[in-house]
Specification:
The chain folds into two domains: 2-179 and 376-394, Rossmann fold (3-Layer(aba) Sandwich); 183-371, Glycogen Phosphorylase B (Rossmann fold), CATH 3.40.50. The protein is 43% helix and 17% strand. It has 16 helices and 14 strands. It has helices spanning 15-26, 49-53, 70-87, 97-110, 130-146, 155-164, 183-186, 189-199, 221-234, 250-259, 285-291, 306-313, 343-354, 357-365, 367-371, 377-394, and strands at residues 2-8, 31-38, 59-61, 91-95, 114-119, 149-152, 173-175, 207-212, 239-244, 264-266, 276-280, 294-297, 318-321, 336-339. Strands 3-2-1-4-5-6-7 form a seven-stranded parallel sheet, sandwiched between helices. Helix 2 links the parallel strand 2 and strand 3. The radius of gyration is 22 Å and the shape is elongated. 46% of the residues are buried.
Length: 405
């Protein structure tokens, strides 16, 4: 039996949690997995229910948290070392930045035969200034040298890592896109749509626009709201906007909405139909997507945005900024309209869809065929298992007797 120790930053709602959970649950019988994750941030939706629903009970490291804290980070590192010595994994596979740093350093110290890291995004663009970005680049270059293999979740991300930022040589990187259980987005769409629109009191002629994700600066909700204002003032149809998620930028987003004279409500506090509805976190994403007419994304940078995969699975057209790995997820002009990082350009694309129901329907029809196989969790599991076997063979690992000091 090949033992895999899988380490995740934290269990917040998003692609990394799904990725780690599917791999922990569905790898073939040659493997067994121990899943570890850090402490959830209070501003984020806790997603421990995702692995638990699959029958996977993760180990939570309270000391491994989102922020950099020397005391907590050293404590988390020490605990990871102890776990590795006890579990004796053949493979340590880390997911995202904090887990990737602490987990790979611990694995190298302990002498784990195969060390794999998945980049679910990166912080080299849009997060810090030049000095901060350079610090993180140098850190990741050092960690890459400790890694047996690196997984990028898109071709664009691999280009960023190998060519644009020089983290490691392209030959060390394997592209394995994320995987999800998307069937639920294709089933009972009309029933779910009717239920969503009844609960949120949407009239038949109102066009529902959703933007899904953490409310943080990198998501650039200001751009989105500026575009919404233009569309509201010019569209022939009334629009309702649903901001789904929560995070540190919530109050700033509300302030921006007020400055733009866009009325808004927190549906959890006051169920009053307004132009903008803050829903908080929603776990039934198939239900939410069914109720929408358009899904938007206005980020400054992105890896593989889950909301756009789910939107296409649900048959919804997309308006998005053209950043990061977006073009590896959507088909420009067919399932999504791409915009630059200007409110004028974003509003123009949004307006095309709000005022053309035929175009929305045509683009929505093409989504399922784009994501059905490419982003299936079955494909994710098969690709990852094959990569594990390749790395184990390359390192000539005796799976019955891994070398652990």
């Amino acid at each position: 039996m090949i033992r895999v120790l899988r380490i995740l930053n934290r269990f917040n709602l998003g692609g990394p949690t799904y990725n780690a959970s599917y791999l922990s649950r569905y790898l073939p019988g040659d493997f067994e997995t121990l899943l570890i994750g850090g402490q959830n941030d209070p501003t984020e939706k806790n997603s421990e229910y995702i692995p638990c629903k699959m029958g996977v009970k993760p180990v939570i490291l309270d000391q491994m948290r989102r922020e950099v804290n020397l005391v907590n980070d050293l404590a988390a590192y020490s605990r990871l070392v102890r776990i590795m010595k006890d579990y004796k994994p053949h493979i340590v596979h880390t997911h995202a930045s904090k887990a990737g740093a602490l987990g790979r350093l611990a694995a190298a110290q302990v002498g784990i035969p195969v060390i794999v890291h998945t980049f679910h995004g990166h912080v080299f663009d849009g997060y810090f200034g030049k000095t901060g970005a350079l610090v993180y680049k140098n850190l990741e270059r050092g960690l890459a040298k400790l890694s047996t293999g690196i997984i990028a979740i898109s071709q664009a991300q691999m280009h960023d890592l190998a060519i644009k930022h020089g983290i490691c040589h392209e030959e060390k990187i394997r592209v394995i896109p994320l995987g999800f259980d998307l069937d639920r987005f294709a089933h009972d769409r009309e029933e779910k749509r009717n239920r969503f629109r009844e609960i949120y009191r949407l009239r038949d002629n109102e066009v529902a626009i959703g933007i899904v994700g953490r409310l943080v600066p990198i998501k650039n909700h200001t751009l989105f709201l500026e575009a919404v204002k233009v569309v509201k003032e010019n569209s022939q149809y009334p629009i309702r906007v649903f901001i789904v998620g929560d995070g540190e930028s919530r109050r700033q987003i509300e302030q921006t909405a007020g400055e733009l004279n866009l009325d808004f409500t927190d549906w959890n506090q006051q169920q009053n139909p307004c132009t903008i509805t803050f829903t908080g976190w929603v776990t039934e994403m198939d239900w939410l997507m069914a109720g929408m007419d358009i899904i938007a994304l206005s980020s400054i940078n992105e890896g593989t945005p889950v909301s756009l995969i789910e939107a296409q699975a649900a048959g919804k057209p997309i308006v998005t900024t053209n950043v990061g790995g977006i073009c590896d997820v959507v088909v420009p002009g067919k399932t999504a309209l791409l915009s630059d990082n200007s409110s004028t350009g974003f509003a123009s694309s949004l307006f095309k869809l709000t005022d053309d129901a035929g175009l929305r329907e045509e683009m929505g029809r093409q989504g399922w065929g784009v994501v059905e196989k490419k982003f299936s969790y079955r494909r994710l599991v098969d690709d990852t298992a094959s990569y594990y076997f390749e790395l184990l063979d390359r390192k000539k690992v005796n799976v019955k007797n891994p070398v652990i000091i």
